[in-house]
Each structure stands twice: as C-alpha cells, then as structure tokens.
Amino acid sequence: MTLLFEQLLNGLQFGTMIFLIAAGLTLVFGIMGVINLAHGSLYMIGAFVAATAAGRGAPFVAAVAAGAVAAGLAGIVMEVVVIRRLYRREHLDQVLATFALILIANDGVSMIWGKVPLPVDVPAALHGAVPLGGFAYPAYRLVLIAAGLLVALGLYLLISRTRLGMLIRAGATHRETVAALGVDIARLNTVVFGVGALLAGLAGALLAPIIAVQVGMGEQILILTFVAIVVGGLGSIRGAFVGALLVGLVDTLGRAYLPVVLKPVARPELADSLGGGLSAIAIYLLMAIVLVWKPRGLFPAGSR
Amino acid sequence: MFAYVRAPLAALLILSLGTAVAGAADPPTVKIGMITTLSTPGGYLGEDMRDGFQLAVDEEHGRLGGVPVQIVIEDDGLKPASGKQIADKFLLQEKIQLFTGIIYSNVALQVVPSVVEAGAFYVSPNSGPSQLAGRGCNKNFFVVSWQNDTPHEATGQYAQYLGIKKMVLVAPNYTTGKDAIAGFKRTYHGQIAEEIYTGLDQTDYSAELARIRAANADGIFYFLPGGLGINFLKQFTQAGLKKSMKVVLPEFSLENHVIGAVGNDAEDLYGTAHWLEDLPYPANTKFVAAYRAKYHREPTPYASQGYDTAKLIASGLRAVNGDLSKADAFRAALRRADFKSTRGAFKFGPNQYPVQDWYSMKVVRDPKTKQLKLRGVGKIMRDQGDVYASQCKLS
Questions:
Q1: How large a percentage of chain A has pLDDT more than 90?
Q2: Which of A172, A248, A270, B33 has its CA 20 to 30 A from that of B193?
Q3: Strands (E), chain B
C-alpha cells in the first residue's frame, strides 16, 4: 500500500514537470497555431544556464531563476527571428523550421558548453528524505511537486483572472476577432511565447539536479510532452495539466507494476523484459484510447 | 521519431597531416577512414576516442609507425545506415583500405562486414560485438577494446568478490542491455532479486527506484550508458538507496565524465575497467600527461582506446612501411600486437579480440585536492579473453 502511494507520488512529480514544459507548448500551438519542435531546446537552455550559474557558486534559487529567465529570453529571440515568420505557413514548414532550430540549438550548446554532461548538486538543505508514514520520500522531489503545482495555480489565475489571460483565451479561439478589436497580436504572441519558454526553462533548471544536463536532453522529454498535450486537448492549459498528470501517472505506474503483474504468467526473464517493453508503450495506448473516445483530447481549447 | 532527432551533422573534418614536404625516401601517405559518433548525446565518447587517436598521430608529427597518415573523419550520428553510407564512400571514392572509429555496436554491425568483405582492414577502438567474435570473426577485423560481454563479466566477478548476497540488475531494454545482464550473471552466482529493463530515452527512474527499494537487495549493477547512467545515479542517491546497497558498475557507467557530472553522488562507488588513469605503465603515464596537457580534460577509457588503436596501427604500418597491399604481412604484424599499451600487457586471442587483465576500482576522495577520483584497487581477472573465441576458426 505504501509502495503504491510512493509510486503515485512519483507519477505526480513526473507529471507536474511534464506540465511545465507542456504549458508553453500548448499555448503556442493554441494561440499561434505553430508546432514548435524546438520547445525542448528551451528546456535544455534553462538546464545549462542553471547548471552554469550553480557551478559558479550562485545560490540554488538564483541559479534556477537565471535558467528560467535565460530560456525566456532565448524564446523571445526565437519568436522574433524565426517563429514570427511561420504563423501563416503550413505545419510542414513549421516542423521543418523548428527542427532546424533544434539542430542549431544542440550544436550551439555543444560549442559553448561542450558535449560532456554538466554537474548540478541538489541544494544541501534538500538533500535528505522526508518520512511520510511508512516510507521516506526524497525532499527535493517533494519540492518539485510543490513547484509544479504552484506554477499550475499561477497559470490558472493568470489565464482566468487577468487581462492578459483573457486575451490569451480569446486569441486561442477567435484570433481574427481579437486582432480586429485592435489588440496588438504580434506583441501578444511574443509575450505568450516568452512565458512558455520561461516555463520550459524553469522545468529544465528544476530538473537539472536529478537528470543529466547534456546536449539533446530536450528531445528526450519532448515526445512525452506532445503526448500530454494531445491527450489533454491542444491549446488548453487545463488540458495540458490533466494530460501531463495522466501521462506521468500512466508511465510511472506502468514501469512500476507491469513487470510485477506479468510475473505469475510468464518466465521471470520474459516478464521483466516484456513488462519493460509494454510500459514503454503504455502512454501511447493511453493516447489512442483517449483519442478514440474524444478525438480532440479531453479539454480542447474553447471547450469551457 | 524524436528519439532520432539528433544533429546528423556530417561534418567532414579532414585533419591534414603535419608533415612538411615529403622527402624522396618517404613512403606514400596512408589514408585512415575514421567513422565515429560525434553528434548526439553519446557524441562525447567518439570525441574522446578521436582525440586519443590524434594524440598518438601528433606524437609522431603526423605519422604512425614512421608512415605519414591522413585521417579522414566522419560522424555517423549513431545511425547504422549513415555509418554504412560513409563506409561505402570511403571504400569506393576515397579508396581507403584501413578503417577505425566506430563507438556503437549497432553501427559496427552494419559497417564492419562490408569493409572486411571488400578486403579492407577494420581496427575497432570500442565496439566488440559477439556476432563478430565467434563464428562471424574475420581475419581483417581486430578489436583493441574488449569483447562487449567482458566488462560485465568482470563486474559480476567483482560483485561476487565483494560478497554481495542479493543483486538488482538494471539495463535498457535492447540487445546490448540484455547482453550486459547475461554477461554479469555468467560470473555472479549470488541471488538476483530483480532484473529491471528501462527505456532507452528514459529520464525519470522513480518507479524503478521504488521497486529497487522493495527488493531489499544489498547490491546493484546497472549498464546505462552515458546520460542514462547519470540520471539514474543522481536519482538513486537522492532516494537514499546508496546507504543500504553497494553499487558495482562496468566502466561505461563509471568514468571521469560521469563522475564529473554526478559530483558527490559518485563517492564510494565500485567498478571494473580494463584501463585506469593511474596504471603505472610508462606508456600510460605519458599518455595521461599528454592528453591532459593537450585537451585540458581528464582522460577516459575511450580516449585510451583511441590512443592504443593508433599505436597498434602504427606497429602494423611500420612492418610494411605503409604498403597496405602487403595485406598478409600487415595482418601478421597487427596480430603480434607489438606496441606498448596504456593498459600494460595486451595480446590478441584466436578471434583477434583482446586477452587482457581487468582491474577493480573504487571512487575515493583525494585527501589533498578533496576531489573524487577513480582509484585502482586490484586485478579482478587476468589474461581474460572471451567466451566466443573458441568458436572462431581463422586459418
């Protein structure tokens, strides 16, 4: 029972981190109609800048902030220089151009920082584990969950309670009307893109102590992120949140329990490797089921 | 598709030789085709190997064994198909007769057969697949590193020696991962609590870590190359599991770059290797000092393998004075392995894979610099060949 609870926490933590990346991706797609494959590169930039700042002796919070801000700025530059030209193009052009951005970002990062992964330590105060009745959970992962939920709440308030949020919602569903009402869509786009990039950078910086900070790290997590926003419904923050948590939980629980479930019915070696294989496709199975049931995802933009 | 979205930067780097005008008695320049992995997250392995190789060429000012060499380098991007394309181009257009460089076995298995069938030579600095070690061995194929199973057999032996009663084994769910676990189990005879197979693109290991804790074992072995192992070790330590389990690793998961990336989490880890930077052989001392001076980073096993590969090739080129059309003489010279290896004693088995010693090692804190360092502990296996050699029939 405690093991199940621990695995649920693991899934929640993984899901909230996916959400941080998914939020920007889904906003950019929902409002601007751009498929940004290079979103993972912003996550990578966040992690590298945070790692560098922490390595130079910056306090952890400052290092994380530096990573997020750097990714946000990189995102704004990316929007102004490249993405802006893609709004009216077809998805194929967008995929091609943002794919090129991935290559440029990866090679740029390896020119600046090299190919060898960078070290980042967990801040000393969060190094231990917290007893949670029956088991101890790493303190840092609890902080990640809290940070993810806080950002989700903040985004919810931003979208539902502020003028900017109103424009974002309107832009996602009635783009031409918003423009006709005299809103500077170009600036709105830049702001939204920057916020999305900032969140991706925040995720990269927060995850830096528990994953390898290395070139190409963005593409590893991007595919999960795409699954999350497709499951949740493109363009919707609420959808991204639910989709990310579902993906995090299904992926984690699949890896935790499929091999165990298969043990009684198959030889041990087979159960282990079959379980490993099945858990790898569990999230795609989830996506397929959701899409059959709701072809536009759980909460598509404009459904509220 | 995104798993393969990695820079296929096929940068053709022609490192021209440093020799000045060739004198009359000089043998003609020998071209060496180096197909290796420089892009992708695994690119630093190829980079280290290439730099180690280049160091040996620089020592002789652009020559190997007194013969001027030109190294033609191309990046395979970890894709077997690109590796094959580059090999075909090297063979047909560049007329290259001597190949090296491949890091990953999936690429090697595509490239090596076509190279050796064309009558050219391939000297492997890293990949030593079982498919080419037994019945599939070839007289023009040499491996300087190890057979792929041996690092894991050495690690199993060390886990046994450390008296670990119950192990958890972790590897990615693909052929090489399964071979690693099979290799480990060949020499470790304690209880296996769990075998866990992970994804090749996995970043989060919390689910596996909870299973590992539930398994109540006193030791863990994992074969997770490069970044995967870094992710895993960071999360393993944070989960507090290192207090109750000994971590015993093959050298891929415990080299200087990994230690640099995980920081303090590497303390007290155990491992095995065929090369260590503090091995007291003159060839090694010289290599380590020169590598640090030239590249300003710590050497890895990959770097030493690149250097040794160049030295072996040098011994062969010297014997035929750079004339690769004397294939039999070149092959015989390579087989003698008449060079000073950075790892001490080195010879080839009947399948032209190495027979060598394996060392146990531990990560300890240097009392002076307070830095974490890999320290050799002892020899765990002597004159170790591989289990496939007996199936190889080379005339």
A1: 56
A2: A248
A3: 13-15, 30-36, 63-64, 67-75, 98-100, 121-124, 141-143, 166-172, 191-198, 219-222, 246-249, 270-273, 347-348, 354-365, 372-384
Contact by Cβ (8 Å): A225, A22: yes
Q: Which of B167, B168, B231 is nearest to B199 (CA)?
A: B231
Are B199 and A276 within 8 A, CB to CB? Answer: yes
| Residue B11 identity | A
Euclidean distance between CA atoms B26 and B4, whole angstroms: 45
Listed residue (B305, B281, B333, B379) closest to B143, CA to CA? B305
Write the CB contacts of B130 (distance below 8 Å, at least 6 apart in sequence): B147, B148, B149, B179, B386, B388
Considering only alpha carbons, which residue of chain A is nearest residue B198? A276
pLDDT at B7 over 50: no
Among A210, A217, A247, which would you mutate to test the B interface (most chain B Cβ atoms within 10 Å of its Cβ)? A210
Separation CA A148–CA A154 (nearest Å): 10
Q: Count CB neighbours of A162 within 10 A.
A: 11
d(CA B9, CA A116): 17
Q: Which residues pair with B125 in a beta bridge?
A: none
| pTM for this model (two decimals) | 0.84
Question: A14 contacts in B (CB within 8 Å)?
Answer: 204, 206
Please name the member of B47, B204, B230 whose beta carbon is closest to the beta carbon of A117: B230
Q: Taking the mean position of all CA atoms in its chain, how far away is CA B277?
A: 15
pLDDT at B255 over 60: yes
- pLDDT of amino acid B8: 30
Contact (CB, 8 A) for B133 and B109: no
3-state secondary structure of B168: strand
Residues of A in contact with B236 (CB under 8 A): none
ipTM for the predicted complex: 0.81
Q: Which residues of A263-295 are buried (b: 16+ CB within 10 A; e: fewer)?
A: eeeeeeeebbbbbbebbbebbeebbeebeeeee
Q: Is B264 on the interface with A (CB under 8 A)?
A: yes
* Crossing angle between the packed helical segments B206-215 and A2-27, to the nearest 10 degrees: 170
Looking up tokens 């050495």 gives: B154
The C-alpha atoms of residue A272 and residue A281 are separated, in whole angstroms, by: 15
Pairing, β B372-384 against β B98-100 = unpaired
Give A-chain residues touching B3 at CB under 8 angstroms.
219-220, 223
Do B198 and A255 make contact, defined as CB atoms within 8 angstroms? yes
CA A126/CA A170 separation, integer angstroms:
41
Cβ-nearest to B207 among A220, A252, A280: A252
- Closest-CA residue of B relative to A204 is B203
Residue appearing with tokens 């090596």 = B112
Q: By CA distance, what is B232's nearest residue in A?
A: A211
Q: Tell which wins on pLDDT, A47 or A271.
A: A47
Contacts of B227 in chain A (CB under 8 A): 117, 211-212, 214, 217
Q: How many beta-carbon pairs under 8 angstroms link A with B? A: 157
Pair B363, B249: CB distance under 8 Å: no
Count the Cβ atoms, other than its own, within 10 Å of residue B223: 25
DSSP reduced 3-state for B24 = coil
**Who's near B215: CB < 8 A, 6+ residues apart?**
B166, B168, B193, B194
- Contact of B242 with chain A, judged by CB distance below 8 Å, is answered with no
For chain A, percent of residues with pLDDT exceeding 70:
98
